[in-house]
Design a protein that fits this description.
7-stranded mixed beta sheet, 185 residues, 14% helix, 1 helix, 10 strands, Jelly Rolls, alpha+beta
């Protein structure tokens, strides 16, 4: 009788183990969830912006220079603005630590700092840290002091024609670049 009871217990244990195995093998161990995702793009500039604007944006250097409404300049002739004609304004949110000025060649003529000769002209600036007329054919420091937002620096320009023109070039345009850098680049 004892042997029968043991056999029944063994059978019950075996049935329990088989049931446990079958239950675990048919029931997933990991639940899978269905989800959807959407995104929101958030943009910001933690440093602010560096910006410069110059007014006025042009100067007709030879307008009425030779009388009678003529617009031309002779060899060796020069003309300049006066009274802080140009203003470079800080219209950004960052302070400038330095402002540079540089003139570029025209389509047909070469810009030099001074004493222009054949097919050349000189461009000079005066104002800011430039306390005398200074050639700007190369990059020059216009202002080395900090210019805060809404601040500005003023300057004038002087153009001088070379001694000889080998062609009738027609109207030329020289681009003057004002470049500013951040106080904490």
């Amino acid at each position: 009788m004892m042997g029968c009871r043991r056999e029944k217990i063994k059978k019950l244990l075996l049935i329990g183990i088989i049931t446990a195995i079958l239950t675990t093998s048919t029931t997933p161990l990991v639940k899978i969830a269905i989800a959807a995702t959407d995104t929101v793009d958030v943009t910001f500039n933690p440093q602010g912006n560096l910006s410069v604007s110059v007014t006025p944006t042009s100067w007709d250097a030879d307008s009425n220079l030779n009388g009678g409404g003529n617009s031309y300049m002779y060899t060796g002739q020069s003309n300049s603005t006066s009274g802080n004609y140009f203003t470079a304004s800080n219209d950004g949110t960052l302070s400038w630590s330095r402002a540079y000025i540089q003139a570029a060649n025209t389509a047909s003529m070469t810009v030099v700092d001074s004493s222009p000769s054949t097919d050349e002209f000189s461009m000079e600036a005066y104002g800011g840290d430039l306390t005398s007329w200074t050639g700007v054919a190369t990059n020059r420091t216009l202002e080395d002091d900090i210019i805060n937002p809404s601040g500005s620096v003023t300057f004038d320009l002087n153009v001088t024609m070379g001694t000889v023109f080998t062609d009738e070039y027609g109207e030329q345009t020289c681009t003057i670049s004002i470049t500013v850098i951040d106080t904490d680049p």
